[in-house]
What we know:
Layout: H1 3-34, H2 45-48, H3 54-64, E1 71-78, H4 85-101, E2 111-112, E3 118-125, H5 132-145, E4 153-157, H6 159-171, H7 174-193, H8 200-224, H9 230-261, H10 265-292, H11 300-331, H12 353-363, H13 365-380, H14 401-412, E5 421-426, H15 430-438, E6 443-452, E7 455-462, H16 469-481, E8 486-488, H17 490-524, H18 528-551, H19 565-593, H20 598-625, H21 633-665
Antiparallel strand pairs: 1-3, 1-4, 2-3, 5-7, 5-8, 6-7
Amino acid sequence: MGPGNTTTRTRRRAVPWALLGLWVALLAFVAPFASKLADVQHDRAVDYLPASADSTQVAKIQDQLPGGETTQMVVVYHRDGGLTAADRTTAADQIGEIASAHPLAAQPEGIPSKDGTTLMYPVASTEPGTDEKARDQLVNDVRDIAKSEDGLSVEVGGEGAFATDASEVYNSLGGPLLYTTAAVVALLLILIYRSPFLWLVPLAVAGMADYLSMGVAYGLNQGFGTSVTGQSSAIMTILVFGAGTDYALLLISRYREELRRIERPYDAMVAALRGCGPAVLASSGTVAAGLFCLLAADLNSIRGMGPLGTVGILCALVAMMTLLPAILVLLGRRVFWPLVPRYGSTPKVRRSLFAAMGSSAGRRPLTVLAGGAVLLGALALGALNLPGSLKLEDSFTSKPDAVAAMETLGKAYPGFGTQPITVIAPTDRADAALAEAQDTQGVDSVTRGRSGDGWTELSVTAASAPQSAGETATIKALRDRLDGSYVGGASAEQLDLADTNARDRLVVVPLVLVFVLLILIALLRSIVAPLILVAAVAAVWGAALGIGGLVFGPVFGFEGTDPGLGLLSFVFLVALGVDYGIFLMHRMREESLKGTEPVQAALIALRTTGGVIASAGLVLAATFAVLMNMPMVQLVEMGFVIAVGVLLDTFLVRTYLVTSASVALRRKVWWPGALSKQPAAGSRELPEPVTETVGMR
């Protein structure tokens, strides 16, 4: 045996072990940082607000005022038959106890309702400042003191209570989200591979990729100040498991193919990486580019999601292209037991679902294309039925104390502003600003608050209910009249969120389309094929939103839609949906380069990649569907739209419409590339239908 063979054998053994060792060292290095990610996660209003909006400036300036940021609460006392003298005494005693236990910005004064059933005490404290844990402790202490007794109902609401309830929800997401996602992916992998061992490998690698992404995300936060919110960290985990498992499915499918014709697992894995590596790199690059475009958004929560989502995708890519191959090579063929791909064997020949789909698309491509386009267009019309912007009290799937307090106030104080509007005015113009605010239509009262660092705080009570059309008009009127001042508060924040989301859609959507299109053109060396893929995913996005419009209100009972749903679902569906188009078109291009006739190349590509694309689509849809189990309406809505969109893309658009368009256009699909100009030599006949053992039958 020559020295060359010995060297080759040594490399086959050494490379996988070296990669495994590097990953062990890498995970050991990031472990201290990954565990700290939760410590830098913040869900304050300023972490979600638009960077340039009035409400953001109010939140920042309040941090600089004496005592720092104010935590606003409303303690609500209610008895259906009317409050008694004893009830009022109990309320006064409890408020006094709260004032004794915590420093308040002002002595709370009770405001009775006209019907005598309710008494509310606005409570504001600067004690927590910007410390979220201290804020949550304050709110919970107030709730412990202000307790219901003898039929007297006591609820604590207001902006601070809302923030605490939301924070508790987001802090509870980490464990359940991770475990549920892992369980869903494990179940699907067991069904796909039908092996007691194989499913563990990609799942374990995805878990390691998620851990790595947490460490990298913490590093970005410390080095560049990247914001980390409960929403962005949850999406990062979903992306790692969803996209990472997709890459694993594609690689393992190709590896299984190569094991049948190559004897040694190491050589088979090298061939598999060469075959599917470009498609995986292009697909991950497309997703990363799409997510990176979120940096152009003005909304803090969306802009911060860009770097974290990109980190999740890149960590999943690195893990699935290095660690997964190393483990599979070390485990050898036996990891596929009981369906072990033997060297020199051929897969069972059977009529596959995707062969049947391809045949129908091949026979009547224009009919299939037109029918699919009409169906997607009809579904997209459902978007007209989407409910309006989501209000704070409608953000939870279950009713926390803050929402119950808001509902009680709405019934007891109809047409009255129970949630203050905050105005920050220059101190030298504070008196004039107070007078102008008092004269503004829709304002009930104005009180002067803290002053410091050249600014003075004014608290405005509107004559209309929170987040009503009347209050919105009042906020806009205050902003028009109070030149040089900033108008914020909970309702103003919601208004700014909706306005900024509309602006961000106009900026980010075209940017995503351009970046994705350029990547596809570079990969496929064509303009027509990329345009088909981009048009297809855009149609899927519209149809998925339309289905959401048909079910959010009538079926789920949601009272509103998160303003960021359209933008985020577009970015995820376009970037992730193009993945499957890349897998399909890349294989079609491979076949065309071998000399296969265009129609045959399209059908072969569908037949050979259909199973793995369907499996990947199911996994990705299931991981986003996990969000539907979370107790926040915006997460449920996002999970639903993206999951439905992925399923539409996988089983309708990718299998029927893209294939039909490719069949109808033939070589023109590769225009203006070399493949569109002349037939390749040695055109091959369409082989018998073959389906790999992995994937959907």
